[in-house]
Write a structure and sequence with these properties.
475 residues, mainly beta, Immunoglobulin-like, 5 domains, 5-stranded mixed beta sheet, 4-stranded antiparallel beta sheet, 3 helices
């Protein structure tokens, strides 16, 4: 076959391929067709048979060959297995017209479809989950497809065919754009050819936020706290106290405090920064865990009441293990004294007949695994009588009669009282058995201001002297 008998855009059948002439070398009359001059397009046996080729002697022969004035001389080809030149589009149209007496327009694409099969439909890609290091895509199954080839670089390179209708990449680079394309592939002999590339699906992997750096705050037996600096682009933070197994609700604050911790318990605290939904960022990795062990409270002392007098009292307790000292409060824990090492406490300036709610706590060493004990409590009441005031006739300014009532304000349990209008005579005034307050008293003769002096006592002490005045008036 000479070069003059071969034209650009002629088609040839080669086993497994449809060859199209793209250029012809005419330097020699009998120049041969070089393989580089032919565009190879996969073709199926079923497609060739479907358009009327006949398999003879292991080669496909076109029944329309007698209409084509091209001698078949395989020895003139470098392609050893070319069997026959395929009719051109125009020749096929002429052949059909000569047979059917009807005109028919056939496009080059139709010729390819006839020889090679119909294009499969290109897959429509759907984006799935995207993280900083992975992404997923999927597509609906394409009718008649045998598999799918995937490109993540915009079609430059494609994978080997797969049958699954999804693809995931688990080793993606954070903050990177991937251009995904998929081709549906046809099975040999199916009568179909591979689809065109799908429309590119652009996927941008997320950028992870920076993990917070934790600073441990106050630790007690029942509480712990951590804090951290704000993370750029974070909308909040989630905290785990169980080494990242579970996280709490998102919070905006930069401090976390656990108020219901258990004493002597290890908590592994982690914090992650939270990214806004549908943003370019993803939640940060969890921070480095902070292993925090809550403190162990010292045992509260057991208080033992000692000697109690009208103006003093004592108490003591046994030593508490791991305590470096003790603090005492005599106002029910409102204020505590300085730390002392002694196991006793004495108050030497107490008031008689006064209740003192005493608390004692064991003190732990700073920076140790212990915390101060709960306070132990004891109520100590001094003995004696605390005489606060005396009042004549409920505080009236005057009286028209010499008979008055005198009321006492006191603490303790007085056994006797005495009243006089002359303070210097108090020591010689006899005691009267005390039953209840007020008591009756008769003023001395004479209309004038009278002052009554009073004193109480019990078995332990005589109280201080208190007085009140009233005007004894004739009218």
């Amino acid at each position: 076959m000479t070069a003059n008998q071969i034209l650009v855009d002629d088609y040839f059948i080669r086993s497994g391929s449809l060859l199209k002439v793209t250029s012809v070398s005419a330097t020699k009359v009998n120049s041969t067709i070089n393989i580089a001059d032919l565009t190879e397009i996969p073709v199926t046996q079923a497609a060739l048979l479907a358009i009327g080729f006949i398999l003879e002697g292991g080669k496909y022969v076109c029944p329309f060959a007698h209409y084509i004035n091209v001698p078949l001389d395989l020895s003139s080809f470098n392609i050893s297995d070319v069997s026959l030149k395929m009719p051109s589009v125009n020749n096929i149209q002429n052949i059909i017209k000569s047979i059917t007496k009807q005109s028919l327009t056939i496009s080059e694409e139709a010729l390819k479809d006839a020889a090679l099969g119909t294009d499969l439909i290109a897959p429509a890609l759907l984006k799935g989950e995207v993280t900083s290091t992975s992404f997923e895509i999927s597509w609906a199954a394409v009718a008649h497809a045998a598999g799918y080839k995937i490109s993540i670089d915009g079609g430059t390179n494609y994978s080997e065919p797969q049958t699954e209708t999804s693809f995931s990449k688990a080793d993606a680079t954070p903050g990177t754009t991937y251009s995904i394309k998929v081709i549906a592939t046809a099975a040999a002999g199916s009568g179909y050819r591979d689809s065109y590339e799908s429309s590119a699906l652009e996927i941008v992997t997320l950028i992870p936020l920076t993990a917070p750096t934790l600073v441990v705050g106050t630790i007690t037996s029942t509480t712990l706290s951590v804090s951290w600096a704000a993370i750029n682009d974070a909308i909040g933070y989630q905290v785990s106290v169980d080494d990242g197994v579970t996280y709490g609700d998102t919070q905006e604050g930069l401090v976390f405090t656990k108020e219901d911790a258990v004493a002597s318990t290890l908590y592994n605290v982690k914090v992650k920064a939270i990214a806004a939904p549908s943003s370019l960022f993803e939640d940060s990795p969890a921070s480095t865990g902070e292993a925090i062990t809550t403190l162990t409270p010292l045992v509260a002392p057991t208080l033992v009441e000692g000697t109690v007098t009208t103006t003093t009292f004592e108490l003591s307790w046994a030593a508490i293990e791991n305590a470096i000292g003790y603090q005492v409060s005599i106002d029910d824990g409102v204020t505590y004294g300085l730390t002392q090492e002694a196991l006793t406490f004495s108050k030497l300036d107490a008031y008689p007949a006064t209740a003192y709610p005493v608390k004692v706590r064991a003190v732990a060493a700073p920076e140790s695994i212990y915390e101060d004990s709960p306070s132990a409590s004891i109520l100590i009441t001094t003995i004696g009588v605390l005489f606060s005031s005396v009042e004549i006739n409920s505080g009236d300014a005057t009286t028209l009669t010499d008979s008055v009532s005198v009321a006492f304000t006191y603490a303790g349990t007085p056994t006797h009282y005495r009243l006089t209008e002359t303070s210097v005579d108090m020591e010689t005034t006899p005691w009267v058995a005390f039953v209840e307050s007020p008591v009756a008293f008769t003023l001395s003769a004479g209309y004038e201001e009278k002052t009554v002096y009073a004193q109480l006592k019990d078995a332990d002490m005589d109280s201080a002297v208190k007085s009140d005045s009233i005007v004894y008036s004739e009218s």
